[in-house]
# Entry
Amino acid sequence: MVGFETILEAPSKDERKSVVGYDVPEGVDIRGRYDAEFARILSKDALQFVAGLQREFRSHIKYAMECRKEAKTTYNNGGLPGFDPATKYVREGEWVCAAPPPAVADRRVEITGPVERKMIINALNSGAKVFMADFEDALSPSWENLMQGQVNLKDAVNGTISFHDKARNRGYKLNEQTAKLFVRPRGWHLPEAHIFIDGEPATGCLVDFGLYFFHNWSNFRRMQGQGFGPFFYLPKMEHSREARIWNSVFERAEKMAGIERGSIRATVLIETLPAVFQMDEILYELRDHSVGLNCGRWDYIFSYVKTFQAHPDRLLPDRVQVGMSQHFMRSYSDLLIRTCHKRGVHGMGGMAAQIPIRDDPKANEAAMELVKKDKLREVMAGHDGTWAAHPGLIPVIMEVFTNNMGNKANQIHSIKREDADQLTEHDLLQIPKGVRTMEGLRLNARVGIQYVAAWLTGTGSVPLYNLMEDAATAEISRVQNWQWLRYGVELDGDGLGVKVTRDLFGRVVEEEMARIEREVGKDKFKKGMYKEACKIFTRQCTAPMLDDFLTLDAYNHIVIHHPTSGSSRL
# Structure
């Protein structure tokens, strides 16, 4: 069982007089704050469904997480990830996935963002083909954010969502035409410490999936999915056995709802290095429920460093140099397209994280040119669509894809990429070229600390230096700093030959904290959680052993238990 440093809030006098709690089934304990609006989401039947998923699949999830640990030990002892000889028959087989549902055949531009109310409305109205509403890397998983997110999604599916911005005195509601909604639950590794089932924290993704599916499957199929759905994005997988669990979860949900098998559809993010060698196998496990794979390229870079944490010969250059022109990144993208198109599903491109720069037309023009260049590369390579972090990018990206795809909904059958069959393990693992600099070290510290500070105060999607950052960027910053410190690397790009030491890193952090204070202003710095974030981030970068995820450690700081909320006898 996972342990948590929780903040316990004692009930007030009024609460003790008349305790109102959630109506929960046997074995379920709700430790998050009671709210009447949340209670409509956390109904007894919905919680029964979530508890059923937890009980049926928890042993499978625990086994999958143990397998991750075993793989990590192998890599730390000098092993390399690669194609599994035991599943060669899957990679060489002539099978295909179920055809994409008509509602999501065209996905040329997708926008992503947290399950925040105004964001949902703006994203659905953005002109993108798909909006991926995020419970994962773009959300700080506080109880309030998670439950309000479920409320918001239910209203969005029903078409009734609205929002009044008091500061701007402006109202927001849905247009007639909206993007198709996909939902991304958390990864298998993340617990939900506000809901206990049979005495242990629930699995975060089963809570996210279960509550959303239970309340929305019927209306979604009628109003959005044209008889299919709901639709999902699945993050952080490392092996096809994890996809097999998701497939079983989907089948159980379909059976509960009385809908045909294959109604639920999901796109898997290939955002870990081990998963790139499992793409055929992942699609095979989800072949009745798949709508393709996506290049989660920022997390993929993070995973490269994490996988090779004990390999001093595989150090990355500054993270700004690790783009799609690097051979290992281009190989990953090409093989993903080939695998998806061979199996009859979408091969989706990566994130454009740029934010329009309103007050500097010249800088904005340069940023938009970078976006166009990146998206042109993707569509020419054969990707069927791509991601944007900001509504302002949608017209630019839509134009690039439409100019090159024309009226075709996708490129699944028109660009096969058979040349990618020649890609080898060496291509996918090739060490990236580039240099390491003091500015790279500083940027990692500055971005990492600011992201963690925002995350601790409830924000998981953070605009920093004209880019929209989520947890993946903070993870790259953290693991790269850790690796450079661990091996005392030479900053060879400055011409100074300085080696990264704890003393140097301490000075850098101190100076970057002073810079953050200047940039955000003394008042915001004082009220924010920058000092707490600095402690967490510094501890993570200087730890003797690399933690698997920054957010697992930071999660302890946002869990708040309310003992009066609702429980049943175990």
Summary: Confidence is low (pLDDT under 50) at residues 1-19.
